[in-house]
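Let's practice the habit of predicting before peeking. Look at the sequence and jot down your guess about where helices and strands might fall. Then scroll down.
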Amino acid sequence: MITMIVHLRVAPANAAAFETLMTHVAEMTREHEPGVAYYAWSKSVDEADTYVVVEVYADAEVHAAHMASSWVRESLPRSAALIDGLPHIRQYVSDGSAPVQRSIASA
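Done guessing? Here is the structure:
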């Protein structure tokens, strides 16, 4: 399994648009990607501008298919315009899984 934990900052003025976008991506992922074990976003209780996205993939091929999906390709430039700075991405692997190569820089 490959787990991605992504922390993002979103200005209050962009929060509603960001949440709508991420809800769409999460719904499409859960509906159309059986190899994705978990995909969800949450908003911090303590820091109103901070969000986390948790993604769990069966393997690197499932992650690659997720990144190639139309909803992810369409959402990336939109989400980049809504967040402040770069996403803080951490990747974790288990069960002997090889890590995926990331194309988005992490702060």
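How did you do? The radius of gyration is 13 Å.
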